[in-house]
Amino acid sequence: MIRFVDVHKSYRVDGKDIPALHPFSLDISDGEVFGIIGHSGAGKSTLIRLINLLERPSGGRILLGDTELTALSEASLREQRRHIGMIFQHFNLLASQTVADNVAFPLRLAGAREPATIRARVDELLARVGLTEHADKYPSQLSGGQKQRVGIARALANRPSILLCDEATSALDPQTTASVLELLAEINRELKLTIVLITHEMDVVRRVCDRVAVLDAGRIVEHGAVADVFLHPQHATTRRFVNEALPEEVAGEQSLYQHVPGRILRLSFRGEATWSPTLGRVTRETGVDFNILAGRVDRIKDLPYGQLTLAMHGSGVDAALQALRQAGIEVEELAR
Ligand SMILES: Nc1ncnc2c1ncn2[C@@H]1O[C@H](COP(=O)(O)OP(=O)(O)OP(=O)(O)O)[C@@H](O)[C@H]1O
């Protein structure tokens, strides 16, 4: 468990303390993928760098399990940091060293000396990230996605229990982003390590995170399970992020439907409800008619979900909405 207790952080600029993170408390559970999303300047990098005390908090306590990081000596803190790996937006690889040597670097730093032992561990790590063939290349000979895979192998070298990802896919194209996120999800599943990632893209959160915190101007304005936050965003900032990840019709842009007759509804299906023919059954039973204005069926991590925007007609609409809700479908009325 990573635990923040009444933590806050200010930076001293021109003799004045400027708050970057207002006081907050937050728990991140072992083995989860936790996303922190926010616009530029919201405080994401500050927050993630507090976890390994690359930034020291101005107040409050940070704990890893039972260990209070904020109370440790420099030597003990160095030891604790071995349990925390980190990957970066711009990879931060050593340009003059081969892929294998980049991955070996933290092993040597931690005291490994035996070449055969180092080589065996590097081979294992490169196999995990799919770069066995590239061991003797230099970073300049790799694509962005391959560089980030080297970064991941390097971060895993000393078997950390926490992996911090600082905008790890922001410099990558969508397809490469998807494959790096898939690798992170696999690592989380198989090695059971906790992943904390910061991003400004809701789609990254949707694909890999279990829970998310939304940061806005140094405050956590919303946090919870990704499915809850994604399907029912409460705060204006969260809504903007979610809507960026959706076609505007599904996002429920009300102006789009001003001239559409009927009651405009958005239905959200989660899990098994996504696959059952509830809408057909309910409309038949209540005698209502509907037309589909927009829709999307996708996944939030491993959870299938669907969102449909409909116009519904007929005297049985209220009964239909009640039956849909009873069947576990979430219904919002956008306009009537
Ligand atoms: N070393 C520093 N000295 C002074 N101010 C800083 C320092 N680092 C960050 N800040 C300020 O703290 C606030 C939060 O910055 P932070 O980098 O944590 O945000 P962010 O959400 O990660 O932004 P970005 O996505 O642009 O990296 C900003 O106003 C920033 O200018």
Automatic annotation (TrEMBL):
Recorded GO CC terms: plasma membrane
GO molecular function annotation: ATP binding; ATP hydrolysis activity
GO process annotations (BP): amino acid transport
Domain ABC transporter: 2-242
Membrane topology: Peripheral membrane protein
Main location: membrane
Record-stated family: Belongs to the ABC transporter superfamily.
Name of the molecule in the record: Cell division ATP-binding protein FtsE
Species: Dyella tabacisoli
Native organism taxonomy: Bacteria, Pseudomonadati, Pseudomonadota, Gammaproteobacteria, Lysobacterales
